[in-house]
Design goal:
By secondary structure, the chain is α/β, with parallel strands linked by helices. It is built from twelve helices and 15 strands. Strands 2, 3, 4, 5, 6, 7, 8, 10 and 11 form a nine-stranded mixed sheet that branches. It has a four-stranded antiparallel sheet with strand order 12-13-14-15, with helices on one face. A hairpin with a 4-residue loop joins strand 4 and strand 5. The chain is globular and about 60 Å long.
Length: 483
């Protein structure tokens, strides 16, 4: 169910005649946010700017990232490749003395745009400084000509990215002041319209955190409106194709870092010339498809090796499955894969002997995780909410998304779903072979140590470094035990 009426499918037309042979391409990329916008059915807040963008463009109800962590998602995004195919599957990898280089046939998307005569930029909102990259491979900084498209030559088309801080805002020290300044009244955590997923307890601290998260969406929507106003002021809105999406889902207990819907399902709205308006597409989309589609809109040949697809091509065939992968995040070693069809989700836990919620310095310090653990220790979580504290995980998980959208009941051992289990298991195995999944090979200890040496440091402080060192030791111990 969507928060606006679908009146019909019409083509977006400009008030003025424009040359759309080489349209501007604008990626608006938001951090740590799921599809909790009113045009996606959220009731507790309103998001008028994205709602309007969806009315003027196309909303995708089933868009997914290929990895639920920023650097792996962004590495895939900027290449149009699965991160597992290019050696970029480990979060913040290649930052130490041992570097990671792209395969020779993989060229970052901004370079392809530059070669076609486009001005390329990457800026953080409001484009006053360099935008986030966070790629897990070596790349030349000059793939971006600047931070803002305003420095391009006259009549030169641009490929631009604008990075929005999104869900990360609520982690800042001055969050309350920012809300008051930009939004006025914060979202009421006690509002009956604020609905928590059933795997989270109806606890005041959890509700407050969720309300803060919804306010980051309100702030993001306001910033989107400011970007659209700039495009209108510069009279380039009608020749700019806008892609709005997020790098992964909400940073919560079962969201970011996990392959459940909360971690990998993201909003995606596209608006511009050549894009039908007021239309919803329900087919399965991977975020690497944005790379291929952007090149196609600009008339730039899509590399044959690119795994993303042009979802607007005349001969486009909807995907039967979408795939996502989770490997090491910071110091925490992991190896999970997922395949999703229209009706089912299959998750393969390769390191199932380890706890479901492995120790991780980044997540364990979040107040939501601290509160969840307190409630678990006090026996105040029900069996569903306690699942994340299991000492081991099942090797396989299968969920019927039609009847279990929250992915609570694992059907992998249910004989009634044996056919679907077999179908999805085979789809995942075939995909791992087809894309040459490099995650099948454990990360070398030398690579791990190199990245951990870069990860540790005086900036984190003694207490945080102590936690990380303890977790690193635990990872190595489990590896020795064959877990």
């Amino acid at each position: 169910m969507l928060g606006f009426l679908i009146i019909g499918v019409v083509a977006v037309t400009s008030a003025n005649a424009v040359d759309v042979a080489k349209p501007n391409i604008l990626w608006i990329l938001v951090e740590d946010m799921s599809a909790h916008f009113s045009c996606y059915g959220e009731k507790a807040i309103s998001t008028p700017n994205l709602d309007q963008l969806a009315i003027e463009g196309m909303l995708f109800s089933r868009a997914f990232v290929t990895g639920p962590i920023c650097s792996i998602s962004r590495s895939a995004m900027i290449t149009g490749m699965y991160q597992t195919s290019i050696g970029a599957q480990h979060h913040r990898s290649g930052r130490g003395t041992i570097k990671i280089n792209l395969p020779q046939n993989v060229v970052p998307v901004p370079t392809l745009f530059q070669q076609a005569g486009y001005y390329t930029s990457n800026g953080a909102f409001p484009q006053l400084n360099k935008g986030k990259t966070d790629y897990n491979f070596e790349f030349k900084q000059n793939i971006y000509d600047g931070n803002d498209w305003s420095l391009r030559k006259k009549n030169q088309p641009f490929f631009a990215q604008i990075q929005l801080h999104g869900g990360k805002y609520r982690e800042g020290k001055n969050w309350s002041e920012l809300v008051q300044k930009e939004l006025g009244q914060p979202t009421d955590p006690n509002s009956p319209l604020l609905k928590l997923p059933p795997y989270y307890p109806n606890d005041p601290i959890i509700r407050k955190d969720w309300a803060d998260y919804l306010d980051t969406i309100r702030l993001t929507d306001k910033q989107l409106g400011q970007i659209l106003d700039r495009l209108k002021k510069e009279n380039i809105l009608d020749n700019t194709i806008i892609f709005f999406w997020t790098d992964h889902g909400i940073s919560h207990a079962r969201g970011k870092q996990f392959l459940y819907e909360e971690g990998i399902r993201v909003p995606l709205v596209i608006r511009g010339p050549k894009v039908a308006a007021n239309k919803v597409r329900d087919d399965l989309i991977e975020h690497i498809d944005i790379a291929a589609s952007s090149l196609a809109f600009a008339g730039i040949p899509i590399p044959k090796s690119m795994q993303g697809k042009n979802i607007f091509a005349n001969d486009y065939k909807p995907r039967e499955f979408v795939y996502s992968a989770r490997d090491r995040a910071d110091e925490t070693v992991e190896h999970m894969r997922a395949v999703r069809s229209n009706e089912f989700k299959y998750i393969r836990n390769y390191l199932n002997e380890r706890p479901h919620l492995q120790p991780n310095g980044y997540k364990d310090g979040k107040k939501i995780l601290i509160r969840m653990k307190e409630l678990f220790d006090q026996g105040k979580l029900d069996p569903i909410q306690s699942q994340i504290y299991a000492a081991k995980r099942p090797k396989e998980e299968l969920y019927d998304l039609r009847n279990d959208p929250w992915e609570i009941k694992n059907l992998a051992s249910d004989e009634n779903y044996a056919a679907e289990l077999k179908r999805h298991r085979k789809a995942l195995a075939d995909w791992e072979i087809a894309i040459n999944d490099l995650g099948k090979i454990p990360e070398s200890e030398a690579q791990y140590d190199s990245d951990m040496e870069a990860y540790l440091g005086p900036k984190k402080g003694a207490s945080k470094n102590a936690i990380l060192l303890k977790n690193i030791e635990q990872m190595k111990q489990w590896a020795k035990e064959g877990k």
